[in-house]
Amino acid sequence: LAKTTQPISMDSYEGQEVNITCSHNNIATNDYITWYQQFPSQGPRFIIQGYKTKVTNEVASLFIPADRKSSTLSLPRVSLSDTAVYYCLVSPGAGSYQLTFGKGTKLSVIP
Amino acid sequence: DVKVTQSSRYLVKRTGEKVFLECVQDMDHENMFWYRQDPGLGLRLIYFSYDVKMKEKGDIPEGYSVSREKKERFSLILESASTNQTSMYLCASSLPTGSVYEQYFGPGTRLTVT
């Protein structure tokens, strides 16, 4: 399983766009990139998943460069309720059930 | 909305007790998972099940067993609880293919073993 590296913590003011970058240098051809969000005392929640280029949903965007050795989760105009831990996961393609969670990035949104 | 429920939010047990943690999902998902989460260690997979009566070991199965007699229910069993099993336990479920990375998590059970 590819190892991921992301910042331990980040601070942002309300209303700003936040970009959290994850490094996964040894990502394999069939691997997917997935991001989860976790609030205190709750289970993680799926945010977005991608394989290459850009993926956007109602919550976030995920940018993946051509070499796929990194990815960036972009949260537009964050609010206080976006304060959470964000996990970047790299997982093998179809046929694997395993998600490997790292330590995540603790995002603190400041008023 | 997918709902994954866990039998207790908080549980306190004594060393040596047999502990059952129950998880129920209401979306007819084939896959179910048990994780534990500890500060500084992130989430670690204990066991998962891809069908009724089927189970596979995750990264840290020692000291645990599981049971899946019905599709919607996945139980984690601590045969003889020990203090190093004090942790947050999270259950999750997912569809079998395509969206396997989109796992739906329950609220967690914080287990304290004294």
Query: How would you spell out the order of helices and strands of chain A?
Result: EEEEEEEEE
Strands of chain B, count? 11
- Assembly type of the chains comes to heterodimer
User: CATH homologous superfamily of chain B - what is it?
Assistant: Immunoglobulins
Instruction: Report helical residue fraction of chain B.
Output: under 10%
CATH-assigned fold name of chain A: Immunoglobulin-like
Provide the gyration radius of chain A in Å. Answer: 13 Å
Q: What is the domain tally of chain B? A: 1
Main pleated-sheet profile of chain A: 5 strands, mixed
Count of separate DSSP helical elements of chain B? 0
Average pLDDT of chain A, rounded to a whole number, is: 91
Measured between the Cα atoms of the first and last residue of chain B, the distance is 37 Å
pLDDT < 50 stretches of chain B: none
Sequence stretches where pLDDT stays below 50 over 5 or more residues of chain A: none
Considering residues with a beta carbon less than 8 A from a beta carbon on another chain, report the largest interface and each chain's count. Answer: A-B, 22 and 28 residues
What class would the helix/strand composition of chain A place it in? mainly beta
CATH arch. level architecture of chain A: Sandwich
Q: Profile the largest sheet of chain B.
A: 7 strands, mixed
